[in-house]
Amino acid sequence: MKRWLALLGALAVLAAGCTTRTADASQPCQVGAAPAAGEVTYVEGARLMAVGPDGQGRRCLADHVDAAPHWGPRGDAGLAGPTRLVSAGQASPTGFTPADHVSLSPAGTSLLAVTPDGRLMKRPAAGGPVEDIGVINSYDAAIYHPSGQAIVVAGYGDGETASSGYGIYLADTTGALQGTLAAAETSHHIDSLAWTDDGHLIFAGQHTDRWDLHSLDLAAGTITTLASTTAPDQPITDVVTSPFAGGGIAWQEGACAPGRPPLTKMRLAGQPLDLPPALATATPVGWLGDATLVLLQRPDPCGAGIGKAARASSAGDVYTVRGTTVTKVATGAVDATVRVVHPTPPPLPTNIPSDAPI
Questions:
Q1: Is the pTM above the cut of 0.85?
Q2: Alpha carbon distance 135, 170 (integer Å)
Q3: How far apart are CA 231 and CA 229, in angstroms?
Q4: Tens of pLDDT along 95-118?
Q5: Comparing C-alpha atoms, which of 237, 197, 232 is closest to residue 213?
Q6: Nearest Cα to Cα of residue 81 among 48, 50, 53, 106
Q7: CA 156 – CA 248 distance, rounded (Å)
């Protein structure tokens, strides 16, 4: 604790790595290729900015955005919210609505969406007709496997091609079910799907008395519980995983309450680690390749309302944390993500056990 306090007391010195605001309104904006070391991307005003892990090299990537993109594995395209796709060519509409939960295929060619009424929709990233590829009763979440060879979905089966109960299912890229990965015993809602570097599926599951953060080993068909909250109204959210060797998982626990924002937790190389106290409520936004966690610290972690004025007032600072080194890399950020080129993803296992209990 003393080491963290001393470190944070010297944060102003470390924050000197944060560049001055030389990227003025006249600077041309261009996405370009992702740097080898990766970069932090964030929204300042209505501009998408990027800065290196050391706070240097600040530049503009795109204009007229209100969310930092969740970048695809190649780092050349990302979803800035459900409605906009940002790429080297342009920022274009996805064709989906703000209420949809949208993800990008690993190759960057397809968009997958779970709608508020539980349908599973797919459309080409370059534009084209939307196709309903759902074959079970309803969907809560969906994500492509890192290999791009399959889709993993959570929802209720139809009683014919899948269990009639709630669970996690494996489908091919057309939506056709291939099997049941996990069958719910006490879990009744699943979301926050993400992948680790070794191909384990990380997900949050709501039970009658708590939320759990689980890891599903597809090849072994086993589930490990990584963390739990103490009540069903204390969710696990903002899950981010590292695609690099050695792994890294960070998430938030708890619901917003007066004087009690959600707390951020992290694991690295399979072990839980503590964040410095001053960043205990900062939102995790991603991992760089050297086991560096990136976080957005807002002055009001639970938000200041709705609208542009509220977003501006909740603009915060972006930090990187690597070991015991904390660096402020950006200020005035209303949203932030990480842009890195992922290593070669793990293959889809050829033999996948079924019906692991949740």
A1: yes
A2: 12
A3: 6
A4: 999 999 999 999 999 999 999 999
A5: 237
A6: 48
A7: 30
